[in-house]
Amino acid sequence: MTLRNGPAGYGWLTKALHWLTVLAVAAQFTVGYLMDADDSGRGRGRGRSGESGRGRGGEGSGYLDDPETLLRVHVALGLTILLLAVVRLGWRRVAGLPPWSEYLSEGQRRLAHWTERALLALLFVVPLSGLALVAAGDDDVLPLHVGAHLAFYVALAAHLFTNLRPRVLRRML
Ligand code: HEM
Ligand code: HEM
Fold first, then answer.
1. Could you state, in order of their start, the residue ranges of all structural domains in the chain?
2. Which of 25, 60, 127, 141 keeps 20 to 30 A from 89, CA to CA?
3. Residues with C-beta less than 6 Å from any ligand 2 atom
């Protein structure tokens, strides 16, 4: 198994970074929606330092129902994703990319190229919009964060359209 990407395909570091990112992003979306579901519609789980932050209406809530805990996990994961994105982008510059899969047409290659760039950009934009949301301390910035993560879904759908087929998927395994 080689370290660098080359004519033989992706090296192990690119693969490890790719799947670590997928895991972290999947966990992050789960926590994000849990926070949203946990929400009473106001306060949105932050800026409520004066409150206990435990559940609503005094119901006994578990660890993962605690809005403050969820937000802390969400921020920590978001920063991890940001760090992974920095390392990834740096490594992509150093290690380059393997030649295209012969199973992708010219049009699919163009689509794959732009969706990879969009995904990489969004790995910065989504966490940064989250940081802006927390820094602002109110919901004015929420549409930016929600919009950024919806854009992520669009790019991911295009990514899966080109890559989620056995002969292409094998290149990242
Ligand atoms: C890749 C990284 C991230 C993803 C995929 C993500 C995703 C999400 C999702 C799906 C929601 C629920 C939005 C809704 O429908 O209401 C959410 C909410 C939120 N996110 Fe993130 N997020 C990320 C990073 C961050 C970071 C780094 C921060 C802060 C430093 C952050 C702060 C927040 C906050 C405060 C909310 C609560 C919004 C509400 O009031 O409901 N996020 N995020
Ligand atoms: C968080 C979600 C994802 C992001 C941000 C992402 C990002 C990327 C990027 C940037 C590349 C280009 C190589 C690199 O620079 O590392 C890539 C390649 C690839 N991704 Fe993803 N990806 C995601 C999810 C997935 C999923 C869920 C699958 C399949 C189930 C997948 C399959 C592939 C494959 C097969 C390649 C190699 C394509 C080729 O032959 O060149 N990706 N991905």
1. 12-172
2. 141
3. 14, 18, 21-22, 25, 92, 101, 116, 119-120, 123, 156, 159, 163-164, 168-169, 171-172
Task: Indicate the pLDDT class of residue 119, thresholds 50, 70 and 90.
Answer: very high
CB 7 within 8 A of CB 99: yes
**Neighbouring residues of 114: CB distance < 8 A, sequence distance ≥ 6:** none
Q: What is the chain's mean pLDDT, rounded?
A: 88
Q: Is the pLDDT of residue 64 over 70?
A: no
What ligand has the least distance to the C-alpha of 35?
Answer: 1
CA 122 to chain centre: 8
User: Any idea which residue has 């010219």 for tokens?
Assistant: 106
